[in-house]
Amino acid sequence: MDYRDGTQNPDLYQLLSVMPKVDLHRHLEGSLRLGTMASIASEYSMGLPGDNFEEFRHLVQITAEDEHSSTVFLSKFKTLREFYRSPEIIQRIAYETVADAAEDHVIYLELRFTPIALARSEGYSLAQVTDWVLQATGQAARDTGIDVGLILSMNRHESVELGQEVVDIAIARSNDGIVGVDLAGAEDKFSGEPFADVFRKARDAGLNLTIHAGEWAGPASVEEAIDVLGAARIGHGVRVIQDSEMVRRVRDQQIALEVCLTSNLQSGVVPDFNHHPIGELYQAGVITTLNTDDPSICAINLTDEYVAAIEKTGLSLGDVKQHIINAANVAFLPDDARKALVKRLTRDLMVDGPETAQASPGM
């Protein structure tokens, strides 16, 4: 599915496509180009149904036949993890992910990846794959002019020791482009509490923290992310709407939500766009941002998400612009760089009034 095929207003798509954008929540492992996957599948005889992408699309991308559930959505990553067959492939995928964001006029991208997902297939070390991604995204940033910050992610269902290794790698490379760490995975099945010391160490070292919560579990998972893990931002977080007190708390503490509309639909978080709570959260004063999550799995880019926000959730063009300013205001950047990004976007988007968005990240 691609909103470019279904939008009721092609002029709106064109308008949004050239606007400067900020994406705070994009997974490298969900951003592989379709042609690149087909090329790798052919070269390495991967045992997929065929070398043509159309023959194995159902294994790596949400299709019309797929049930909208977390189980189906996460199953795509099982196949995607098989593509990381060489350092050159990992670097190619990382480079192309940044280049694709730049082509969509994303001017600031926070790209997260799970080192173990890239390392496991061929037995690479977590440090090796991290350095390969740093090198490739750095080159892509220089070539395209986009600004990129990397977030290292770990999974709730994997060991705390593995998480500690990820944090140690992030700390050691915090001056080389790594801006934060993340905890992902099924929060409805695995608590984040065992990782409390891991994230405390990351925070004490000056790394920014974003935690997946309030996606497949309710408001209690958001509360845990804030109180136990020290999250400055929440990945997704939309199920906080189920508890008015937590909505007030997230608003008052200026905890930003990294909302991903299409992903929320396809993974079963919401039954349809009409029931997505982004508008209600935004009107309540919560800092909401718009992001892609997994562009290739979801078959979208950030422009598609902006179109969906306007055509399918009722946000206005002005609201979408405010979401871009919001994202800039909570970007994991040094204060001066963040203020410069907000100033640039306020000018380029012709947003009226002072350069406010509802917050700056908690550190």
CATH topology: TIM Barrel
Total count of domains: 1
Q: Tally the helices: what do you get?
A: 18
Q: What are the secondary-structure elements, in order, as H or E?
A: HHEHHHHEHHEHEHEHEHEHHEHHHH
> Could you name the CATH homologous superfamily?
Metal-dependent hydrolases
**What is the CA–CA distance across the termini?**
38 Å
Q: Total strand count, please?
A: 8
The helix-and-strand class reads alpha/beta
Q: Mean pLDDT across all residues, rounded? A: 93
Rg of Cα set: 19 Å
SSE blueprint:
Layout: H1 3-6, H2 10-17, E1 21-27, H3 34-43, H4 53-60, H5 70-80, H6 87-103, E2 106-113, H7 115-119, H8 126-144, E3 147-155, H9 160-172, E4 178-184, H10 196-204, E5 208-213, H11 219-227, E6 233-236, H12 244-252, E7 256-259, H13 261-266, H14 278-283, E8 288-290, H15 295-298, H16 302-313, H17 317-329, H18 335-348
Parallel strand pairs: 1-2, 2-3, 3-4, 4-5, 5-6, 6-7, 7-8
Helix pairs in contact: 2-16, 6-8, 9-10, 17-18
Describe the protein in words:
The protein has about 375 residues and is of the alpha/beta class. The chain has helices at about 5, 10-15, 35-45, 55-60, 70-80, 85-105, 115-120, 125-145, 160-170, 195-205, 220-225, 245-250, 260-265, 280-285, 295-300, 300-315, 315-330, 335-350, and strands spanning about 20-25, 105-115, 145-155, 180-185, 210-215, 235, 255-260, 290. The chain has one domain: Alpha-Beta Barrel (TIM Barrel), CATH 3.20.20. The chain has an eight-stranded parallel β-sheet with strand order 1-2-3-4-5-6-7-8. Strand 6, helix 12 (about 245-250) and strand 7 (about 255-260) form a beta-alpha-beta unit. About 50% of the residues are buried. The model is unreliable at about 1-5 and about 360-363 (pLDDT under 50).
